[in-house]
Write a structure and sequence with these properties.
Structural class: mainly alpha
Shape: globular
Oligomer: single chain
Distance between the termini: 32 Å
CATH superfamily: Ribonucleotide Reductase, subunit A
Largest sheet: none
Order of helices and strands: HHHHHHHHHHHH
Number of helices: 12
Length: about 280
Amino acid sequence: MQDQGTAPTPIPEDAELLAAIYRLFREYFDKAEKKRRWSIRDDIPWQACNRSLDPAIADVVETFCSVELYLPDYVSKLIPQVRGNRGRAWFLANWGYEESKHSMALGDWLLKSGQRTGEQMADLESRLVEFEWNVPQESARGMACYSMLQELATWLHYRNLRLVAGQRGGDPALDKLLTLVSIDERAHYEFFKDLVKLYLRYDRPGTLEQLRRVANTFAMPAYNLLVDGQQRAAAVQELHIFDEQMFLYEVFEPCLTAIDVKKSELRQRRSRREQVVMSSTR
């Protein structure tokens, strides 16, 4: 359910903050170039695919692949929010590159493992383009808070799928794929966590208000766009990959600890008038 309160007050980003965000992006980018770049073709042992792996694992891989296939929507709608913020816009361009690798690698595994045919994958892609993803938060600051939670939750999805796949017969190719993707997703979370910490330092009341809105409306991306989204979410829960309890104790609370925010601060909602006054006097 969407928050029916007043629209968030735009928070200006001055030159000092913009410079700090760009430095954060460059640190992220330099580390990625040095330590995290990997090749779909060369770094995954495709010849070791387990063609007898539990089909339930393949169903979840297909779900994750489906979510990743909305990448054109994600990039095309997120970048306009931050067009004037080079650090965030350039990060999203790099993020899109990394997410495209995740999508292709997951799709390749479904094909090479024999779990899906080319015709089935083509049908999946054609069905997905009938729907469109929209940003869950209207402000760029709100999307930073949302992305922090979402990226840690995504990392948890991939980590737990890797563990469950190992328990159900294992697949060396899928194991390596999920390891590489998990490392990327964790790095995405770290960027957004540090970004939110920057925003808190420059405008704590305004950022807390955005975080409160996100906490009250959070949902993982695209699940509601899939025709059988509820069924897919239930399958993920059945395999103990992700559920509401995991979100609370392994995503939400760790995020608050990492950015030094107490739950009580999120309950202290300020009026729109107070937010305007604070923003104008920052």
